Amino acid sequence: MIKEWATVVSWQNGEALVSCDVKSSCSSCASRAGCGSRVLNKLGPQTEHTIAVPSSEPLAVGQKVELGIAESSLLGSAVLVYMTPLAGLFLMAALFQGLFSTDLAAVCGALLGGVGGFLIARGLSPRLSRRQTWQPVILSVGLAPDALRVDTSPAAEQK
């Protein structure tokens, strides 16, 4: 199970809308100057992901929840997104090369296969995302934001 903490944005009728922060892979190693990931992370927008998760217990806005998703569903979605266009690219390039015996035909077949694989992945993903095993679940719930109060007055320090 892959786990991540999220913040509750709203809760209505047994469904919580939670926001997960995008974490960059940078700032965790010493090679910041020559890191390609760091450059790419600076180019893209630093946004949040908001998702709906079923929750039977009421949640307060700002409350932290731990979400979990099965590794198999995450790996399955990664295979669908990355391997389907790649497989289409290679299959159609080989088919066009075999049929027409030119490199231009192979390139055209590769382009068609890559786009076709992308469209297949795009068409399958909504159906697969409805599966119960592919849905994130709430594993644990943190305290509500107003449930804990720290008293820093001088009277509290004398006790």
Automatic annotation (TrEMBL):
InterPro entries: RseC, SigmaE_reg_RseC_MucC. The chain crosses the membrane at residues 74-98, 104-121. Pfam families: RseC_MucC. Keywords: Membrane, Transmembrane, Transmembrane helix. PANTHER family: PROTEIN RSEC (PTHR35867). This is SoxR-reducing system protein RseC. It comes from Jejubacter calystegiae.
